[in-house]
Amino acid sequence: xxxxxxxxxxxxxxxxxxxxxxAGGGRALVLDYKTNQLGxxxxxxxxxxxxxxxxxxxxxxxxxxxxxxxxxxxxFLERPEDVVSTTFGRSDLAALEDELSVAIDRIRExxxxxxxxxxxxxxxxxxxxxxxxxxxGGGRPWAPTPELTAAG
Length: 152
Description:
Elements: E1 19-22, E2 27-34, H1 43-50, H2 52-64, E3 69-76, E4 84-89, H3 93-108, H4 118-121, H5 146-149
Helix pairs in contact: 1-2, 2-3
């Protein structure tokens, strides 16, 4: 499926690469293990900066599959004790869809710029073969949808 034809209906019912299980009472749990090297960064900051849209898609997948509530948990293997957890409910559905719509619209408009960095590109096998990495310069910083800022 091309990015240009991507819609909300393309959200998988079970996010790939993650653990999804029932937690009773119409709840779902998505647990995503991350291998990022955190260095001095806080896990919650990494989730907010790098995984916010992914978290929204996970929540949408579970809510659209009929769950009343979904807890999305990120656990970084480097610091397993610093779990980052956010819970979404049916009342968050519209804001989650809006956030995804903004991202889809940007892609359709061709506004899908890479934002390489020394950190993100370190160790990439394509660096200097297919991609110039950090020498490309950055895209624009990603800004979360205001409606979800308070929720997350």
